[in-house]
Amino acid sequence: MDAFSAQPDYPRLLIVDDDPRSRDSLRELLKDGTTDLATARSGKDALMQLSSRRFDLVLLDLCLPDVNGHKIMDFISREAIDVDVVIISGRVEIDAAIGALKRGAFDYVRKPYGLEEVTTAVRNALEQRRLRQANRHIAIALEKSERMYRYLVDASPDIIYTLDREGRFTFINDRVSRLLGFQRDELIGQHYQALVFEDDLELANHAFDERRSDARASRNIELRLKRSADVQRTQGHKNDPMTISLNASGMYLQGGSAERPGFVGTYGVVRDVTEKKRAEAVISYQAYHDILTDLPNRSLFRDRLGLALIQAKRKNVDLAVMFIDLDRFKLVNDTLGHHKGDALLQQVACRLKRCLREGDTLARQGGDEFTVVLPDLQHHDDARVVAAKFIHSLEQPFDLDGHTARISASIGIAVYPDHGETLDELLRNADTAMYQVKGEGKNGFAFFDQSSRELLDRRTSLGHGLRHALSRNELEMYYQPQVDTSTHRLVGAEALIRWNHPTRGLVLPREFMPYAEEHELIPAISEWMIDALCCDMQRWSRADNTLKLSLNLSPHYLDRGKIYDKLRSAMLHHDISPNRIEVEITENISKSNPQHAIDQLKRLGQLGVSIAIDDFGIGYSSLAYLHRFPVDTIKIDQSFIKAIVEDDAQYPVVLAIISIARGLGLHLIAEGVESEVQVRYLRAHGCTVMQGHLFHRPMPIDEFIATIGGKAT
What we know:
Blueprint: E1 12-16, H1 20-30, E2 36-40, H2 43-52, E3 57-60, H3 69-78, E4 84-89, H4 94-102, E5 107-110, H5 115-144, H6 146-154, E6 159-163, E7 169-172, H7 175-180, H8 184-187, H9 201-207, E8 221-225, H10 229-234, E9 242-252, E10 263-272, H11 274-287, H12 298-315, E11 318-327, H13 329-336, H14 338-354, E12 361-366, E13 369-377, H15 380-395, E14 398-400, E15 403-405, E16 408-416, H16 423-439, E17 444-447, H17 450-469, E18 475-484, E19 489-501, E20 505-507, H18 509-518, H19 522-540, E21 548-552, H20 555-560, H21 563-574, E22 581-585, H22 594-607, E23 610-616, H23 622-628, E24 633-636, H24 638-642, H25 652-664, E25 667-670, H26 676-684, E26 689-690, E27 699-700, H27 701-708
Keywords: Phosphoprotein
Domain Response regulatory: 12-126
């Protein structure tokens, strides 16, 4: 702790911050030779110093490791410590600012702060404290000298007045001319109602002309006063009144009797709190609105939906709640950056608002999620029309400073009272309907029905169970053999994950992998797969050590995981040769960070692992992969194989893929072969390696080992 200097009359400041750099920075900033500075590195240190020393101002950080800033302010209030507080904090939540201001903080400066911002706040706080002390001295000075009384009263930052028994001004200081624009001489003899804003006259009659002088006298009564025409014109206030805080007390002659107490008039102090009220209004607005889009936030939306439900029940009419989730928004954020993502959200909000009526409410829930309440509906189709407008408005491209972005939306709709009678029911069911749209391909809308709830419940239950599947050893690898039809021998296998669910039986990856991606379970599952595959390969190598394994890992793992290190470690541990492993990639593997994907695949190639393109031909960038990635094998997507139904017909896409592979010297595998016609056609045009149900279905490891024991198909 720093000792105070030897200048007792200088303002004393206490800097409270657990970050030594912040403390040193503030100390250097405020060290000007006219202030005494002390520092505290913790909340307890600050409480100890406040209890033992006198300070004029505390520069307080809210986020302290032991006692937070709000509790320190509560201690100051509880112990009646005469000190002002300026908050200097990195917290951006509106609740933090509101909590500090309610506890009497003079100002709230957010980190990182500017030099002028901090020095101005400190200067104003010390100046305001000085003025308050000056006002206290006024009361003493009034008893000593009428001349001193006049001087100090007129120098006050507040309007000070006295009234006679009829409520007419007998005295008012010069501050009234600076704040309201009226000359003091023209107000002497006027009734106080001449200054009061018309709508506040009733309140003023009970407070302005106060006759009580005890604890019941008027304290901190807020009302509005008129401004003169000159002030309205020169200062731009127009018809804007000034908001004041009024303290008034009755004046009595000494020696009055109980019957005639000697009331002679009223003494009052008027303080301008206009800017304070404006600041409070801004804080209140921000507490209920989303700062980015200026839409109502979740709290305000719930309030409005609650009121709309009350009206709907009273009028016996319908209302609709919509839950909107933007499709492909994350791709915009990942590729163009969060700044462009924010701009996109602002444009989306503007488009959606244009589709609504004046009485409808659009709110931002957070992220890329929006909610809507449509009150006073005559038919369900009214909500359908609005949802269709939303879909159409979002189909148009968005211009983000020269970058074009295209998105869509999945919209769920719940209607009162058919789909719920409470606020939470309607929101939950609209959310459920939205997930139904997501599951059916996105870019659309759907009304809630009970089947949607049952589907979501099953999906949620499945998702919760997946978190425990690894620890309970419920996952298992299956293997689908790949056959060289020219020799009728097995040449490899594709590894496919399955989940042996305790109640649902065998669950396929298309059911549970989307949940794994959504909840960041892909890295853990992928690393389990690599270990399981290498362990199984070690087992089947005793029967055949030439078969190659195709390993299909999620793009999320290649993008975020450490596949090179994990695969290399597993192969060394299980003594697996890298040339027996082939990693399959899909088109969306390089969307977010293509260079990282290329680097990862090149490292795998250097390790000796080969690379295959899975589902070749269905993506717009498949051909680009052949130039950018170190590809060894092409797998023809089963959708093209399924189209082969005649020996003599022409299937140009299949022929083109075979031609590309032959021209580039790549291996070729046909997926999803299910008929002899498909086998004959593929062999006739140069593709001999195949996999599909015609040959073998995916099978567990023991069955696969038994199958490769003979090798022949």
